[in-house]
Amino acid sequence: MINNYELYKVFYWAAKTGSLTQAAKTLYLTQPSVSHAIKQLEDSFGLILFYRNSKGVELTQEGAVLYSYIEKSQILISLAEEKMAALKNLDNGELRIGGSDSLFKHYVLPYLEDFHEKHPGIKLHLNHGTTPEVISFLKEGRIDLGVVRMPIVDSQLEVRESFQLQDCFVAGARYAELKDMVLSLEMLLKYPIILFSRNSRARMAITEIFQSYGYTIKPEIEVGSVDLLIEFARRGLGISYVTREFVSKELEEGSLFEIQLDVPLPPSHVGIMTMRNMPLTSAASRFIELVR
Amino acid sequence: MINNYELYKVFYWAAKTGSLTQAAKTLYLTQPSVSHAIKQLEDSFGLILFYRNSKGVELTQEGAVLYSYIEKSQILISLAEEKMAALKNLDNGELRIGGSDSLFKHYVLPYLEDFHEKHPGIKLHLNHGTTPEVISFLKEGRIDLGVVRMPIVDSQLEVRESFQLQDCFVAGARYAELKDMVLSLEMLLKYPIILFSRNSRARMAITEIFQSYGYTIKPEIEVGSVDLLIEFARRGLGISYVTREFVSKELEEGSLFEIQLDVPLPPSHVGIMTMRNMPLTSAASRFIELVR
DNA sequence: AGGAGCTATAGATCACGTCTATGATCAATA
DNA sequence: TATTGATCATAGACGTGATCTATAGCTCCT
Q1: For residue B101, is pLDDT > 80?
Q2: Pfam families of this UniProt entry (chains A, B) (predicted)?
Q3: I need a surface site. Which of A112, A288, B151, B172 has the fewest CB within 10 A?
Q4: Mean pLDDT lowest among A133-137, A143-147, A273-277, B249-253
Q5: Is residue A172 part of a domain?
Q6: Could you tell me if A79 and A146 lie in one domain?
Q7: B278 pLDDT exceeds 80?
Q8: Structural domain of A38
Q9: What pLDDT does B3 receive?
């Protein structure tokens, strides 16, 4: 039984319309083509599928049995094609993004809102984790793209730089005397420092910066979230190292102020990370395009 | 979306085996053909369906969605093909026969038993009725073939003569004096005659025979079934006109005897009737072949 | 009798499905 | 590190078979 499945499409329409001529029109074929196709099917089964009469065709008993299967099959294919079109049009589908909570909250969110408004049919899945975790998610295929701090050096990954973040040291009212001063790193280190505890890119970056100047930065307090970094600084428990964009509200309202240093802190870059040589879903491509 | 459904077969096997090479082997194609087929599908949707890696292929999110539909569709087609093969092999199906009760009982039954033994998967449907009723059944498509007395003159029908029946007059002990006599039609008519009441072929035939000899046969008793014809004759209510083959048991055991006439009664022919120019089901063809 | 449907058949044509040959990439070996 | 053996992709050639046009045959209806 080596049948061309295309024949079933012809059979389906012939049965559905009850006319080879009609089927031909539906399929943009000529009537003899349809006639021939049906004949092929009949020959392959060794069974007659249609009664031919002057008004058209009618299923035989055996043709009716075949139709009961083929009809369902063809409907499934139609549904599949509709679904594919919907996926392509982004009427449908899902987008799975990995990244840190703070990046989601302060940076990715507006893009997600925009994306969701434009494509309300796409389900969004956010998976937060540290940069190494996000990389694993990506490699395991659990997310479509990751939003992480650069640089990422991994030959399996492709990273599109998307924007810069400026990290800085901030303090609260308790250290008001520093507000108008320009501190050296050495001076800064005399104060209690609050850093993000986890093995994050930001933490690594600041450690390296201090090392490049010959100092070692050792935090008084380590916390597990950006929110705590901010809260601890506000309460005067120390000076927090935090992304400036994440505390813009506090800086504005004056509950925190930025410590001015005599050396520049290099900005950190945020990138959108995907698997290299792996095709993206339409939704993922669209999102990246939107963020650009 | 004008897609060749053949591509879905290729897609199905590629997804199922996780390898274009394997799919090619399954489908007796070469790997480039499969590769090309998948590419066509992808292009037609504008979506990537597989991740290609050095071990084979893996469905993308969108490919997985497609597969969820196509898998069911392909399974239905496989089932359909199996079913068709079963119908062809007569492992399966139904055979609907029309005819008179008496023909079924005395003539068709052994063939049906034989058929059923050879093809136990075929469901048998027997519809009894008079010849005109059976013809209607056939034209309405309610039966596949009819077993009736010939001649049938209907251009829509095709009749295969299959065997002869000899009708005759029989009587019981009450008319024992006739056993060794040879009667003329005129003499016969002096006795009470029992005929089948319904507008049957047999009734028409005997009427015509008498008319051709210039007589009119008028029954004393009309009954509605062959069984009653026999029973009435046995009980001596008259002389029944009945098919000899239907009373072979009674003739043998002596409860009935055949009246000898001085003119021959022409045999009646039984035929298997089908719609002309209408294909037969495999089961019907097989049955006819068996009866021959 | 003629016309308007329908399907079947015959024969020609050419698109396209399939092939072979080869390249590119990757992973697991030696 | 080079080698081998998988994988899939690409290019180009080939030939089959799907499709076409033209026509016939049939049935029903006017």
Answers
A1: no
A2: HTH_1 (PF00126), LysR_substrate (PF03466)
A3: B151
A4: A273-277
A5: yes
A6: no
A7: no
A8: 6-88
A9: 60
Summary mean pLDDT of chain A: 86
Same domain, yes or no: A181 and A232: yes
As a whole number, mean pLDDT of residues B91-108 equals 83
Q: Are residues A16 and A81 in the same domain?
A: yes
Q: Are residues A72 and A138 in the same domain?
A: no
The encoded tokens of residue B126 equal 């027997």
B58 burial (CB, 10 Å; 0-12 / 13-18 / 19+) is middle
pLDDT score of B60 more than 80: yes
Structure tokens, A21: 């001529």
What's the rounded Cα separation, in Å, for the pair B49 and B35?
Answer: 12
pLDDT value of residue B227: 83
Is B61 within 8 Å of chain A by CB?
yes
- Chain C positions with an atom below 7 A of a protein C-beta are 5-11, 17-22, 25-27
Is the distance from CB of A161 to CB of A131 less than 8 angstroms?
A: no
How far apart CA B114 and CA A108 sit, in angstroms, is 78
What pLDDT, on a 0 to 100 scale, did the predictor assign at position A256? 92
Cβ atoms of A3 and B81 within 8 Å: the answer is: yes
Crossing angle between the packed helical segments B61-88 and B6-17, to the nearest 10 degrees: 110
- Out of A47-56, A197-206, A259-268, B228-237, which region has the weakest mean confidence (pLDDT)? A197-206
Contact B76/A72, CB-based, under 8 Å?
A: yes
A150: amino acid identity, one letter: M
Distance CA A142, CA A291 (A): 21
Q: What pLDDT shows up at residue A198?
A: 64
Tell me what the mean pLDDT of segment A124-130 comes to.
86
Same domain, A74 and A190: no
In a 13 Å sphere around the CA of B51, the CA atoms on its Cβ side amount to 18
- Work out how many CB contacts closer than 8 A connect A with B: 113
Q: For an interface test with B, which of A47, A50, A138 has the most B Cβ atoms less than 10 Å from its Cβ?
A: A47
Q: What is the DSSP string of A117-144?
A: HH-TTEEEEEEE--HHHHHHHHHTTS-S
Could you give the CA distance from residue B139 to residue B132 in angstroms, rounded to a whole number?
A: 11
Query: Is the model's pLDDT at A149 over the cut of 70?
Result: yes
- A139/A156 Cα distance (integer angstroms): 8
Token pair, residue A203, equals 């933490």
Q: Which residues pair with B149 in a beta bridge?
A: B270
